[in-house]
């Protein structure tokens, strides 16, 4: 059936600010869906309150509404735009819940709006735990023994009937919020209360716990002809008991028998067909008994999910793009395979490689948090790696995590205490996969590890083999490693860094040079969806060690953009927004744009975004070999946050041109001590400071600058390790702790300006002129990280004199640092005195916010300036903000109820929202202003 011609305008509901459990995978899905609908000539409107996403950019949709996700906002849009249909399946649970709320109050009916991509009744069936359980029974799909409870008494009765261990699953929540396992009767009352309060309908499912069973996810698509295809089967490395968002996952499934897989497929298709008459995508989760392969259904989500983005990147099949077209009436056989361009979309991808996803955690930001993983998701991001084998992909994923690991162990960071290791295996946390390897190194038998972790033996055998390889490697010196054995190590995913550590007396560069002598070179394979059965036309690559290289280098001028790696607190989706605009600008400037990144949730790793995509770790060895192959004109590091910036020194040493501000000038700004010296030379006020490399030096500096002092390491992002201390004892503890976690780092000791306000500026410099993008005034005082503070654009209470000083210092610093591109500066303001706290000559988290507020494509402009294609005077910049824009941070403390929620110099927020007000009498603003007054008076 061709598309529904009555649908000419569609509203896509976004997912709002990033929180743990709902991250930028929905930015990717919503962006892809919007572009897909625009291809069909459909006018697209988007509602989303997140300013940091590419989804809320004019390059994605015709009309962007940066509004709170409420029915009032929806109705405002429906009054302004002639909307024919709403697509709520691209914005996660937030969008679905809002769709249901709008349906319940008759909003869709009032404005004659079709709900596409899902059946509203289907949402009810899947989110209501009792309805879902009964539906599964009706269609003959197995489910765990369970009872619904709407009260404490009902929950107690259910527990008595089913028996322990139990799992409590609240209805209508995201990422397992409020859920958990109950192993003993004594724990039940508190867990039941928590679940009932977490559910908006005060309803929980009390269910038999199938701990230790295997967990699988299937991604499905269905068209209006009731054709259903399975896009991807994903197996969890971790068994049931750990939220799939916190689990290492693998595709395709590694340990399924064919019989079990076929049975699972059939059940998934039956489930999708049972939840309403709609065309679109859904995610189904199953649990499998490892003893007899009995299957039970866990849940079905009739929407794009976290796994949908992963499945899209894993297979090359653009799920959200096709799902959007199915929602407007197309059938699968009428659509084109986006990779081959010659076959239809009515096919199931075949993988001749393995992908591994590893979640990224930020427990360091939540001191005192319970790090044990369970039903409630705690990861803040994820990485994905592609290899020819599971173990190669696993090692590459470990290299991608941005946790200073060279791979799966063999890097000097192993745990050696057997008691600690076994406790970690029994009580899983972020590092369990590393501790499995550590256990094997200490000689713990495979069966003992399997019993305590319940991880399938096949996976453990793969990890155990690494220990055997490392034992053999230690027999050799670098110059006598047999070529075949060296090649085997590389095919098993070992980095040059790991090999150098294992050999003990050689550098990473030595290992690199030796393998090049032996002709062991990284080659690149194409992600083609069909295991090379049909020719692919999409330049989407991963690396391995074989003979044939499928990445054909063009003779065009090239620019490589280094991505930001996994999302984490302090480095989030705003950097991916910047990278996407960098790619667009490079193309517009006539370059072939090449993206290197490993984050499956992001728009930058959509194979349609760059001219060429390398889905690879942003890890030195991988980046180096891509550069040596492609020979670009230069590399952009300014847009990818700290992940990309930390490559700058090695790139310069390799003779690679860094596009924009030079490494030397970026390093000057990052080195807190040298930067303060520059401020002194420029006669720009700054807090008294000193630099220390030991606790003794820090105590001496503190006595000179005076307490309270701000203690911080150089070269960090997101306020990592920062603290405010008021005496020698606290200072000594803080410095010792920093040097333990960041050995060799300089520690900066600043006098902390008590009762000071904080403000910041963002600007672009082309080497001659400086354009102030925007100046913001913070609500929270100095001492609270800027990412955790509400910020108002433009300033609302800073005097003209203060604002002039901020502008003057911004211009002076931009020129002194020889900035080419972006510059963010943070200020402390005390009365009429303005102090510079720090300057960052790179993209910052505030630029997307300012760009959305003023409706100016600042990253695009900055990239063209960096490339030297334009001067600032070439752009006609017209700001459209009337009134004020407010950036408000969003936190995920509900995931860590046990931690201290007090804000300080180390960033804790996971996302942000934007709100516009016409004037300062707005009630929302008055509440913030009162908060600011309270903060300053309290200090």
Radius of gyration: 27 Å
Largest β-sheet summary: 7 strands, antiparallel
CATH superfamily membership of the domain at 757-931: ATP-grasp fold, B domain
| Overall pLDDT level | 91
- Please identify the structural class as seen in this structure: alpha+beta
Sheet with the most strands: spatial strand order: 14-13-10-11-12-15-16
Helix coverage percent = 25-40%
Q: What is the CATH T-level topology of the domain at 757-931? A: D-amino Acid Aminotransferase, Chain A, domain 1
The N- and C-terminal alpha carbons lie at a distance of 66 Å
CATH domain class name of the domain at 757-931: Alpha Beta
Shape: globular
Helical region count?
31
Q: Which band does the percent of strand residues land in?
A: 15-25%
Subunit structure: Composed of two chains; the small (or glutamine) chain promotes the hydrolysis of glutamine to ammonia, which is used by the large (or ammonia) chain to synthesize carbamoyl phosphate. Tetramer of heterodimers (alpha,beta)4.
Enzyme class: ligase
Protein name: Carbamoyl-phosphate synthase large subunit
InterPro entries: ATP-grasp (IPR011761), ATP_grasp_subdomain_1 (IPR013815), CarbamoylP_synth_lsu_oligo_sf (IPR036897), CPAse_ATP-bd (IPR005479), CPSase_dom (IPR005483), CPSase_lsu (IPR006275), CPSase_lsu_oligo (IPR005480), CPSase_preATP-grasp (IPR058047)
């Amino acid at each position: 059936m061709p598309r529904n011609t009555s649908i000419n305008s569609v509203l896509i509901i976004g997912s709002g600010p990033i929180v743990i459990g709902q991250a930028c995978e929905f930015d990717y899905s919503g962006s892809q869906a919007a572009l897909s609908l625009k291809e069909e000539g459909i006018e697209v409107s988007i509602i989303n309150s997140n300013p940091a996403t590419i989804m809320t950019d004019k390059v994605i949709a015709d009309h962007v509404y940066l509004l709170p996700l409420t029915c009032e906002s929806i109705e405002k849009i429906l009054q302004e735009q002639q909307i024919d249909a709403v697509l709520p399946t691209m914005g996660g649970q937030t969008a679905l819940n809002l769709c249901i709320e709008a349906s319940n109050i008759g909003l869709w009916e009032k404005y004659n709006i079709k709900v596409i991509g899902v059946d509203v009744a289907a949402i009810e069936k899947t989110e209501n735990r009792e309805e879902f359980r009964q539906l599964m029974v009706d269609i003959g799909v197995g489910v765990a023994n369970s009872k619904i409870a709407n009260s404490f008494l009902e929950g107690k009765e259910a527990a008595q009937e089913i028996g322990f261990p139990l799992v409590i699953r609240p209805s209508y929540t995201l990422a397992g919020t409020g859920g958990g396992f109950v192993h003993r009767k004594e724990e039940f009352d508190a867990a039941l209360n928590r679940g009932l309060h977490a559910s908006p309908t005060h309803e929980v499912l009390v269910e038999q716990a199938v701990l230790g069973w295997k967990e699988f996810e299937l991604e499905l698509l269905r068209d209006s002809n009731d054709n259903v295809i399975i896009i991807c089967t994903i197996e969890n490395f971790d068994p049931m008991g750990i939220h799939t968002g916190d689990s290492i996952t693998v595709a395709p499934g590694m340990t399924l028998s064919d019989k079990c897989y076929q049975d699972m497929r059939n059940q998934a298709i039956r489930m999708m067909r049972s939840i309403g008459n709609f065309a679109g995508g859904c995610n189904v989760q199953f649990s499998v008994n490892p003893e007899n392969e009995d299957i039970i259904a866990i849940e079905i989500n009739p929407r794009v999910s976290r796994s949908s983005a992963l499945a899209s990147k894993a297979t090359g099949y653009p799920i959200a793009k096709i799902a959007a077209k199915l929602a407007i009436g197309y059938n699968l056989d009428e659509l084109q395979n986006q990779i081959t361009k010659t076959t239809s979309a009515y096919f199931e991808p075949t993988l001749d490689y393995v992908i591994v996803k590893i979640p990224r955690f930020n427990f360091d930001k939540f001191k005192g948090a319970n790090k044990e993983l369970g039903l409630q998701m705690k990861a803040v991001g994820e990485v994905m790696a592609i290899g020819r084998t599971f173990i190669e992909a696993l090692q590459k994923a470990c290299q991608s995590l941005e946790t200073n690991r060279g791979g799966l162990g063999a890097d000097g960071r192993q745990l050696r205490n057997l008691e600690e290791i076994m406790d970690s295996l029994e009580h899983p946390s972020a590092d369990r996969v590393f501790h499995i390897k550590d256990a094997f190194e200490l000689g713990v038998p495979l069966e003992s590890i399997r019993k305590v972790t319940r991880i399938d033996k096949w996976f453990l055998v793969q990890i155990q083999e690494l220990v055997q390889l490392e034992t053999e490697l230690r027999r050799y010196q670098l110059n006598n490693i047999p070529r075949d054995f060296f090649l085997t190590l590389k095919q098993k995913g070992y980095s040059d860094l790991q090999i150098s550590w294992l050999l003990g007396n050689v550098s990473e560069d030595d290992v690199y040079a030796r393998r090049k002598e032996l002709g062991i070179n990284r080659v690149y394979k194409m992600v083609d969806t069909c295991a090379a059965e049909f020719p692919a036309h999409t330049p989407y690559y991963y690396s391995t060690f074989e003979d044939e290289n499928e990445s054909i280098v063009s003779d065009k001028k090239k620019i490589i953009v280094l991505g930001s790696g996994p999302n984490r607190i302090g480095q989030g989706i705003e950097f991916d927004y910047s990278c996407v605009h960098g790619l667009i600008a490079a193309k517009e400037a006539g370059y072939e744009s090449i993206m290197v990144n490993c984050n499956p949730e992001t728009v930058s790793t959509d194979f349609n975004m760059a001219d060429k995509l390398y889905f690879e770790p942003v890890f030195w060895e991988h980046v180096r070999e891509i550069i040596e192959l492609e020979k670009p004109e230069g590399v952009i590091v300014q847009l990818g946050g700290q992940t990309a910036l930390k490559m700058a020194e090695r790139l310069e040493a390799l003779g690679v041109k860094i596009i924009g501000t030079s490494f030397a000038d970026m390093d000057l700004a990052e080195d807190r001590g040298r930067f303060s010296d520059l401020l002194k030379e420029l006669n720009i006020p700054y807090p008294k400071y000193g630099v220390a490399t030991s606790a003794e030096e820090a105590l001496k500096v503190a006595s000179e600058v005076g307490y309270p002092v701000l203690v911080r390491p150089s070269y960090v992002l997101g306020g990592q390790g920062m603290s405010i201390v008021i005496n020698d004892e606290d200072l000594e503890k803080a410095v010792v702790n920093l040097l333990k976690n960041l050995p060799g780092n300089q520690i900066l000791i600043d006098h902390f300006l008590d009762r000071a306000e904080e403000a910041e500026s963002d600007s672009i410099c082309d080497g001659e002129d400086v354009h102030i993008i925007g100046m913001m005034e913070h609500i929270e005082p100095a001492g609270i990280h800027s990412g955790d503070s509400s910020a108002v654009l433009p300033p609302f209470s800073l005097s003209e004199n203060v604002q002039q000083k901020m502008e003057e210092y911004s211009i002076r610093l931009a020129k002194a640092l020889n900035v080419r591109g972006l510059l963010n500066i943070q200020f402390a303001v005390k009365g009429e005195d303005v102090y510079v706290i720090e300057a960052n000559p790179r993209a910052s988290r505030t630029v997307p916010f300012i760009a959305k507020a003023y409706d100016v494509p600042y990253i695009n402009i900055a990239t063209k300036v960096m490339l030297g294609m334009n001067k600032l005077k070439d752009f006609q910049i017209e700001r459209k903000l009337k009134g004020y824009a407010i950036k408000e941070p969003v936190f995920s403390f509900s995931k860590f109820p046990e931690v201290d929620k007090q804000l300080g110099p180390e960033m804790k927020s996971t996302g942000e929202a934007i709100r516009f007000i016409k004037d300062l009498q707005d009630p929302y603003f008055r509440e913030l202003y009162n908060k600011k007054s309270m903060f300053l008076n309290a200090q």
